[in-house]
Write a structure and sequence with these properties.
single chain; alpha/beta; Uracil-DNA Glycosylase, subunit E; 6-stranded mixed sheet; 9 helices; 44% helix; 13% strand; binds uracil
Length: 199
């Protein structure tokens, strides 16, 4: 790993148009993850979604395909959206804290996150969702700078830049800890109720 800090870009210098932003992100070389990625995973979904999910970063299948949450964890997320929220996956917007796969699925470094997160903040500004779901502790911590463990904060309705932020367990964690699915289900019911209120 190159010890030199990655380059940074300010959110307010990025375009206010999702397609124009995507073009920039697909060519990004601000950090070292660009050297090992196969594809940039910009995110996908309804550009006017009321609900946005934010994961941690692409895994192997996402890196291969350029699409977010399409591996095993993604299949679980899709079921959570379609079977519990009872909406189509294409109705929501799905993004990640970092857009390129960290090698061996390690947690992205603070430096990589600092380079990449302005893209997410711009996506949030453009899509303008009423509700954001932070999937897992990495997502929650980097969105809010709050280090409270996900097990303590999950399911709470928080204010985030005038939007509602709800942290919940990451689907990969649920695959490893199926006994936690009950709590995640409760969080989804909270999200479903809120979605009804804002629709
Ligand atoms: N895990 C994530 O956090 N994001 C993805 O896109 C896939 C798996």
């Amino acid at each position: 790993m190159n010890p030199i800090e990655s380059k940074k870009i300010a959110t307010d210098t990025l375009p206010d148009d999702l397609e124009a932003l995507k073009k920039i992100v697909l060519q990004c070389h601000l950090c070292n993850l660009a050297k090992t990625r196969k594809n940039v995973v910009f995110g996908e979904g309804n550009p006017e979604a009321k609900l946005m999910f934010v994961g941690e970063g692409p895994g192997a299948t996402e890196d291969e395909t350029g699409r977010p949450f399409v591996g095993r964890a993604g299949q679980l997320l899709t079921k959570m959206i379609e079977n519990v929220l009872e909406i189509r996956r294409s109705e929501v917007f799905i993004a990640n804290i970092v857009k390129c796969r960290p090698p061996n699925n390690r947690v992205p470094t603070p430096d990589e996150v600092a380079s990449c997160i302005p893209y997410l903040f711009k996506q949030i500004e453009i899509v303008n969702p009423k509700i954001i779901v932070a999937l897992g502790s990495t997502s929650y911590r980097h969105l809010t700078n709050d280090k409270t463990p996900i097990s303590k904060i999950r399911g709470k309705k928080l204010n985030f830049q005038g939007r509602i932020l709800i942290p919940t367990f990451h689907p990969s964690f649920l695959l490893r800890n199926p006994s936690k699915k009950k709590e995640a289900y409760e969080d989804l019911l909270t999200i479903k109720e809120l979605l009804c209120e804002v629709s």
